[in-house]
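Final paragraph of the annual report: two paired records, presented back to back.
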Amino acid sequence: MKFFADTSDLDAIKDLADCGMLDGVTTNPSIIAKSGKEFIPLIKEICQICDGPVSAEVASTDFEIMMKEGEKLAKIADNIAVKVPLTEAGLKVCKSLSDNGTMVNVTLCFSPMQALLAAKAGASFISPFVGRLDDIGQDGMDLIADILTIYDNYPQYDTEVLVASIRHPEHILQSARLGADVVTCPPEVIKKLYKHPLTDKGLADFVEDWKKTGQSIL
């Protein structure tokens, strides 16, 4: 499974890269707005740190403007994945850009049939939002299972399932069990995967026992 960081925090991105836990980065207008930085220069910096796909989202809903935005974003770096909403206009942009060799991430997916449409439009990634479905009383992971089943039925599509709106490590565990291609989540959620109370206790015991020996490895 690939880990994408859902952030524009350069320090957090570098930290994950140093640990070998960074396969890509996803951003959206809300994440960029919170950063307080200029969009294009920030995306360029992220692309310099991350060798994997970096999702940069269009800001328009109109096809013609969205198309121009997508073409501009695609020129930032070779590893840009232009992010478009799952609308009719967004899928038209997806088809056009993907036909020209640009990676496209289709976002805001909430149904299996939306995911099928994205695959037919040539999307490199489909981003189903599991957390937002959980918020309204549905099981977001059921959507992931349905999408994976449909994609497995039609091997001519190579769209990767990028599980988004991840809120906690359990979402990552369930995604891995189902065989999702990618998860994207805030860096703090990825870091929670390191943690286990028995690891902490075992390490504390080892450190204390080593002190008693009075020895040093260095």
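The closing record of the year follows.
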Amino acid sequence: MKLGYKLPLLAVKDVEASKKFYGELFGLTVAMDLGRNVTFSAGFAIQQDFAWLCDLPKESVVERSHNMELYFEVEDFDAFLERLAAFNVEQVHPPKTHEWKQRVARIYDPDGHIIEIGESMAVIARRFLAQGKTPEETAALIQHPIEFIIASKEEKI
């Protein structure tokens, strides 16, 4: 028997609202639309009527469980924040910078799933290198392996 992992699936209340959210804010395209089940080309799916699908009590589907997130990286974090400002979304927290120098924003999607948008770590590595930091200094600052820094410099990531 061959078992192959496919993708994560998020339970949603309104598949059309979620398609619009992910399409308009993140520019994701739909790879397959089966009505109540939609797969995005980014590698995850959304499912309306999840309790029905799994034969679960409707009230057992929990909102805002705060135990997972979808993670996206952007090349231009400032431009993404400008784009985000045009949408009426609830923030998990205001944009912040982690100790590894990555700027991130976390928001809720229409169903209360956490979405993290982080500045590309390769962009961060290239920025420090352009400022004259050595690959070793950059690796220490952003807490990534030297191999990642070198690959970032050569834009192989």
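Residues 15-26 form the longest helix (12 residues). This concludes the annual technical report; the extension proposal builds directly on these records.
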